[in-house]
Design goal:
The complex is a heterodimer of chains A (about 350) and B (about 350). Chain A is of the alpha+beta class and about 350 residues long. Helices cover about 60% and strands about 10% of the residues of chain A. Chain A folds into two domains: about 70-125, SH3 type barrels, CATH 2.30.30; about 140-350, MetI-like fold, CATH 1.10.3720.10. Chain A is built from 15 helices and eight strands. In chain A, the strands form two sheets. In chain A, strands 2, 3, 4, 5, 6 and 7 form a six-stranded antiparallel sheet that branches. In chain A, helix 4 (about 135-140) packs across helix 15, helix 10 runs antiparallel to helix 11 (about 255-265) and helix 14 runs antiparallel to helix 15 (about 315-350). The longest helix of chain A has about 35 residues, at about 315-350. By secondary structure, chain B is mainly α. Chain B has 13 helices and no strands. Chain B is globular and about 70 Å long. Chain B has helices at about 1-40, 45-75, 90-95, 110-140, 150-155, 165-175, 180-185, 200-225, 230-240, 245-270, 275-280, 295-305, 310-339. Chain B folds into two domains: about 1-40; about 105-340, Orthogonal Bundle (MetI-like fold), CATH 1.10.3720. The chains are: A alpha+beta (about 350), B mainly alpha (about 350).
């Protein structure tokens, strides 16, 4: 028994048929799927529910809404119920109003006659309904498109700057020998130890001095040079054959041309990994934008979401929909580049 | 026919080609001025030109801020500009460290700082244990000959990419008073639990949500380590009839140990700086039950009525010192691993 349990912890050679440890493994993985995917699925399902459906307890699994019918003589659409009549027959009736424990109801086919029914004899008629308004209303009610645009601008511009300046530094540190090289390396390693969490206030001061407060540059610039980016690219560039560079020099290519036309194209795989990381960092960045972006016009999506969850305590339907929209680009990137990302992380050990 | 079959791939390559073409065009434009620059200063000085942008960024946004931070920590007042701040010596540090007993935050002058320290310590200890157990367990299962390994690996990994705000909101929605978990509890015959009103539960879910969000990353590192262990070592052990526990204890664990150490130190470094998920999930509450050091620093410098950059600076310097030591350990370990 314990031997079997312990076998779970070790590599087993395949082709021996089903041992109970295999069953345990798949059970663990199935539980994992439930625990990892379940919450996101629940978020997506909930985001399509109407505010009243969100208030239900216990909640229904799928977004349901009560059916309504238009009945002649009543200006408002009326909610539809299935009613068990006193003689045991079952009818579909629309409710006009509720008075205490009785409900005044009407048959849509005979609008003139009202029927009194005890409330415990009726159950609402429900059907699957997606409250798309949760997604479309925020577009007009809040500046949701602006936050989306801000996040996109920050992500794209910051990633381009990161790729450019980090590849330049990596090129200098991988191809050349020059005075001060080890000092520069030490400086890059040094920045590895200084996360922005511990220099929030002074970076805020620098950004203020540069006049970037409450502009997107305040978020884009401070994280643009990253030591991990320099290391990743330098490691890759070291593998480029020196002969190639020497040959280009023989052909009178300038140093910039060698960087731009030879080293950069050859470093594309490493650049792609850094680009993916940078997009992830920027799209998800929270603490620094929270500190530096005080005006709502420049809020990025995570900051806006955080502000909403403070202000819209009762409006979960909007909050959930906006959360889904924030999640969507990352989910798409992941769906297409999953293998690439996981192997990139496994090889570099960073994120 | 072959064209048709290749077309989706080609379509995917087209935007990439467009981007590459754009980059090439920009590079062609920048070539003449850079060539002129090289003629002016000589090829030997070109490396400095390549280094310059990065060094300017590091200088402006890392090195200069470190210096300013130290200045902040030894000055007082509410002014943002160092020149306008009166020198107070070690007063900010003294204020932070002024405690009746370090074990009891209530006896400290800056009790919130010490609550942050103790909460962060509690969080870190539970987070390290849970993270290592779950990511190691998952890596071991994923390393077995299972079907659809890529899919299962992706399942555990995808939350790593999610924004911490999104992660926190997903769980806040599940854990709220009338949420999914309380519905399940009442259906099972239990009582609703107000998770964010109870300090113990708030801390539990802070750890749980962080593990949920990040375990995929550490699982990947450990899985890479497991797969690097040569198969024949196991085959030899199996031929000798070594018992499974012994194989795990004597082969897997020692050979995985370098990766495991790196994971431990990485979790430690990240836990000490925890902020995003916990802040959105609990807001540091109930009361101060999940207030972490970084939240204390952020609040002291930015969110309070009176912005106290001096106190925040002093706390940052202390946190920075801890992180410096931890990162040195990590560099030492990774260097030993790569050797």
């Amino acid at each position: 028994m314990t031997g079997g349990l312990l076998r779970l912890l070790t590599r087993r050679r395949g082709g021996r048929g089903w041992h109970w440890t295999d069953v345990a493994s798949y059970a663990y993985l199935a539980l994992g799927v439930l625990l990892m995917f379940g919450p996101v699925l629940w978020l997506v399902l909930s985001s399509f529910k109407t505010p009243s459906a969100l208030l239900e307890f216990p909640p229904s699994l799928l977004p349901m809404a009560q059916a309504e019918v238009r009945v002649e003589g009543y200006p408002q659409p009326l909610p539809l119920f299935t009613v068990t009549m006193e003689d045991g027959s079952v009818r579909e009736l629309a409710q006009v109003r509720r008075i205490g424990i009785a409900a005044q109801m009407v048959d849509p086919k005979e609008p003139a006659k009202t029927i009194r029914v005890p409330v415990d004899r009726r159950t609402p008629v429900r059907h699957l309904a997606f409250a798309v308004g949760n997604y479309t209303d925020p577009l007009t009610q809040f500046d949701f498109l602006r936050y989306l645009r801000n996040s996109l601008v920050v992500t794209v511009v910051a990633t381009l700057i990161t790729l450019l300046i980090n590849s330049m530094a990596a090129y200098a540190l991988s191809v050349y020998e020059f005075r001060g090289k080890s000092l520069a390396m030490l400086g890059v390693i040094g920045t590895l130890m200084i996360p922005i969490t511990i220099i929030l206030a002074p970076v805020y001061l620098v950004v203020t001095k540069l006049g970037f407060v409450d502009s997107l540059w305040a978020v884009i610039l401070p994280g643009a040079a990253t030591p991990t980016g320099v290391f990743l690219l330098r490691q890759y560039m070291l593998t480029i054959p020196r002969d190639l560079i020497e040959a280009a020099r023989m052909d009178k290519a300038s140093e910039w041309r060698i960087y731009a036309r030879i080293v950069m194209p050859l470093s594309l795989p490493a650049l792609a990994v850094l680009a993916i990381f940078s997009v992830m960092w920027r799209w998800n960045e929270f603490l620094w934008p929270l500190a530096v972006l005080t005006k709502t016009e420049v809020h990025t999506l995570p900051i806006a979401l955080n502000a909403f969850q403070g202000e819209l305590q009762t409006q979960w339907h909007y909050l959930l929909a906006m959360t889904v929209v924030t999640l969507l680009p990352v989910a798409l990137v992941f769906a297409f580049l999953q293998r690439f990302i996981t192997s990139g992380i496994a090889n570099t050990g960073m994120k | 026919m072959t064209d048709m079959m290749r077309s989706p791939e080609a379509a995917a390559r087209r935007p990439a080609g467009l981007v590459a073409g754009g980059v090439q065009a920009v590079m062609r434009l920048t070539d003449p001025p850079m060539r002129a620059l090289q003629r002016l200063i000589g090829a030997a000085r070109m490396p400095y030109v390549f280094l310059l942008p990065n060094l300017v960024f590091f200088g402006l946004f890392v090195f200069l801020p470190i210096a300013i931070n130290i200045v902040f920590s030894v000055t007082g007042g509410t002014a943002l500009y160092p020149a306008e701040r009166p020198y107070v010596g070690a007063e900010q540090y003294a204020r932070l460290l002024d405690c009746g007993s370090y074990l009891d935050p209530g006896s400290c002058r800056e009790d919130l700082f010490w609550r942050g320290v103790w909460n962060t310590l509690t969080f870190t200890v539970f987070q390290m244990v849970a993270m290592v157990l779950f990511s190691l367990g998952t890596a071991l299962v994923l390393n077995r000959p299972i079907r659809a390994r890529g899919f299962f690996r992706a399942v555990y990994f995808f939350p790593v990419l999610l924004s911490p705000v999104v992660v926190a909101l997903i769980w806040k929605w599940i854990l709220q008073r009338d949420g999914l978990l309380n519905a399940a509890l009442t259906m099972a015959g239990g009582q609703k639990i107000l998770f964010f009103v109870d300090p113990g539960w708030a801390m539990f879910w802070s750890v749980f949500v962080s593990v949920w969000a990040h375990m995929g990353f550490y699982t990947l590192i450990l899985l890479a380590g497991l797969q690097a262990i040569p198969r024949d070592v196991y085959e030899a052990a199996e031929m000798d009839g070594t018992r499974p526990w012994r194989v795990f204890h004597r082969i897997t664990l020692p050979l995985l140990w370098p990766n495991l150490l790196v994971v431990l130190v990485l979790v430690l470094i990240r836990s000490v700086q925890v902020f995003d998920e916990v802040f959105v999930l609990t807001g540091g509450g109930p009361g101060t039950a999940t207030l972490m050091i970084v939240q204390y620093i952020y609040t002291t410098a930015f969110a309070n009525q009176v912005q106290n950059f001096g106190l925040a600076g002093a706390a940052s310097v202390l946190l920075g010192a801890v992180l410096f030591i931890l990162t040195m350990i990590q560099l030492f370990l990774t260097r030993r691993r790569s050797r």
